[in-house]
Write a structure and sequence with these properties.
There is one protein chain. By secondary structure, the chain is an alpha/beta fold. It has one domain: Roll (2,3-Dihydroxybiphenyl 1,2-Dioxygenase, domain 1). The chain is 19% helix and 37% strand. It has two helices and eight strands. The strands form two sheets. It has a four-stranded mixed sheet, with helices on one face. Strands 5-8-7-6 form a four-stranded mixed sheet, with helices on one face. It is globular. This is Glyoxalase. Pfam families: Glyoxalase_6 (PF18029).
Length: 118
């Protein structure tokens, strides 16, 4: 098997409300809206995507991790767009973690100092 893309999926109850929130979080509109009213997706890296899809049964239970280049700057930037992160946690592996919660209660964890090997 050769994997060519990775897609993280966040289940939501209302795509219009959630797409607006994710657009503010990511700082840009969706890259694609393949199924209007049901699915919007953002290309977040060259081979990585974040999809937001309507799934009432799973809304609020998704977890997405995003490794960012500068966690402190990202938190400040998000605050300027009306999105607040929880208190930064320092893990014993040297990474820093900050948590966001979307309108449905899904958890988006921002990771600073991420590396491939610990």
């Amino acid at each position: 098997m050769t994997i060519i893309h990775t897609l993280s999926v966040s289940a939501v109850s209302d795509l219009e409300v959630s797409a607006e929130w994710y657009e503010r979080m990511l700082g840009e509109p969706p890259t694609n809206v393949p199924t209007p009213g049901i699915l919007a997706e953002w290309r977040v890296t060259s081979n990585g995507w974040l999809q937001v899809t309507v799934d009432a049964a799973r809304a609020g239970t998704s977890m997405v991790n995003l490794a960012v280049d500068n966690l402190a700057a990202t938190i400040r930037d998000l605050a300027s767009r009306g999105i607040s992160a929880g208190e930064t946690q320092h893990a014993n592996t040297g990474v820093d973690l900050a948590t966001l919660t979307d309108p449905d209660g899904n958890t988006i964890t921002l990771i600073g100092n991420f590396r491939e090997h610990y």
